[in-house]
Recover the amino acids of this structure.
């Protein structure tokens, strides 16, 4: 009996609610909208606001994520741009350098190298097709790198000055004197200058190619004297340890000196090969003198690649 | 035959707190989740799920009341034919509650069948009124939208019953 009363109550309630719904449905559209909007504002506006806040938070989070990714991409791009800028600067310097030289320079890139403790060979991307031949010098803006030892059609192998079999006729440029010798590398990669026993040399003295030997033209910078040793080779030679001017580990581009320079050719024919403002020491028998203090100061201000505290031109 | 002897529906065995969570999830779903969950024009009807499961829990009178409130809530969201969902869900809530009181067995698929049937009835009512006598329009919408929505709503009800009801 209680169950049936409850069932009637349910039917009554359901009937009232259905009737209410029908009344709402039967209302004119304007009144329906008014009621709906009022209910919407009262009940749903706070929820909508909460949704907007949540949506805004989610949007901010998404925007933050997007901005972070964009920042990361921009940083990567900036890094790449900086790398390109440095590369562009180096290439511009190389181009300018090449245009200033009286010799025939072939620009090249290093495409392979041995990855030992100290590199001893490079492979460059020019070969016989570009006129490259064995024994041609390879240089950078700073100075000597090595020489060509093997030539393919479009690539060549370079023996670096750090190679144990490398040697070059060299010249030590002291304060007011020249010393001639040979530069070689030890198996450990240390570069040494072999001089006559009683030669005068001091740390800091520059070493350049002498032009003798037929391979390297005169005046290509090799390095500076780091320290001297006098007790090797049975006391017959003076050996100086050389600090190379070229960091072989960072060489990515270089030049091949395609036109050979006659060792007997006057240095006046290759006047500004590496050291602008620096006139190369004369060949043996020519006069040689110290640079004046005024010239020294001017050269220092000009930011030359090497301080011109050594020689002035004694002759072509 | 007493209700207990026929078996108590799972939704009726839920604690009040758990059922309140269920209601909250359905409300949040109706407010925020239906548009993002749309698949090929079909969306789960969280309000219907709330009305059907509420009716299973509360019986005919409670189901009618809950259906009426839930329907007005839906009408308030839609801002058209105000009272239409109230009418439909009141009828469905009452009918489901009545079935629960008289016929309901606590079988796992029974409430899902009620959900599917409720959605079908609601779509017939709502789309019929919305078509305004235009049979072509009703046909187009009913046969293209309703089957997917019925399946989607039933599946969502099963998921919610599994997650919240622990079935």
């Amino acid at each position: 009996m209680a169950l049936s009363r409850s069932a009637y109550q349910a039917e009554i309630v359901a009937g009232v609610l259905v009737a209410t719904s029908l009344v709402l449905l039967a209302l004119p559209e304007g009144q329906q909208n008014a009621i709906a909007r009022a209910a919407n504002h009262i009940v749903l506006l706070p929820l909508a606001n909460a949704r907007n806040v949540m949506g805004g938070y989610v949007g901010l989070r998404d925007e933050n994520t997007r901005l972070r990714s964009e920042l990361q991409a921009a940083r990567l791009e900036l890094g790449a741009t900086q790398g390109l800028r440095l590369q562009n600067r180096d290439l511009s310097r190389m181009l300018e350098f090449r245009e200033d030289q009286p010799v025939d320079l072939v620009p090249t890139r290093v495409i392979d190298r041995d990855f030992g403790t100290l590199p001893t060979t490079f492979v460059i991307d020019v070969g016989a097709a570009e006129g490259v031949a064995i024994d041609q010098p390879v240089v950078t803006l700073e100075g000597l790198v090595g020489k060509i030892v093997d030539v393919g059609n479009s690539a060549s192998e370079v023996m670096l000055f750090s190679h144990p079999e490398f040697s070059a006729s060299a010249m030590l440029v002291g304060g007011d004197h020249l010393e001639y010798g040979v530069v070689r590398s030890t198996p450990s990669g240390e570069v040494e200058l072999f001089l006559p026993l009683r030669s005068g040399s001091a740390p800091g003295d520059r070493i350049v190619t002498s032009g003798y030997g037929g391979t390297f033209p005169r005046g290509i910078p090799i390095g500076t004297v780091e320290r001297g040793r006098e007790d090797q080779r049975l006391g017959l030679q003076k050996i100086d340890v050389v600090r190379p001017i070229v960091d072989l580990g960072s060489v990515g581009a270089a030049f091949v000196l395609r036109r050979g320079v006659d060792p007997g050719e006057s240095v006046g024919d290759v006047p500004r090969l590496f050291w602008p403002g620096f006139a190369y020491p004369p060949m043996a028998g020519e006069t040689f003198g110290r640079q004046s203090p005024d010239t020294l100061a001017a050269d220092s201000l000009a930011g030359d690649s090497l301080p011109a505290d050594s020689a002035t031109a004694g002759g072509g | 035959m007493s209700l207990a002897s026929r078996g108590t529906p799972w939704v009726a065995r839920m604690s009040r707190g758990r059922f309140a969570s269920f209601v909250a999830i359905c409300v949040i779903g109706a407010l925020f989740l239906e548009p993002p969950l749309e698949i090929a024009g079909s969306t789960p009807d969280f309000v219907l799920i709330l009305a059907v499961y509420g009716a299973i829990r509360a019986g005919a009178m409670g189901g009618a009341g809950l259906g009426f409130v839930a329907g007005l809530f839906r009408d308030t969201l839609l801002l058209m034919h105000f009272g239409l969902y109230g009418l439909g869900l009141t009828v469905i809530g009452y009918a489901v509650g009545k079935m629960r009181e008289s016929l309901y067995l606590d079988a796992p698929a029974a409430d899902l069948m009620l959900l599917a049937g409720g959605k079908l009835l609601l779509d017939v009512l709502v789309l019929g009124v919305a078509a305004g006598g235009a049979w072509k329009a009703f046909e187009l919408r009913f046969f293209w939208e309703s089957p997917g929505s019925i399946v989607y709503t039933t599946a969502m009800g099963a998921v919610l019953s599994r997650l919240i009801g622990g079935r």
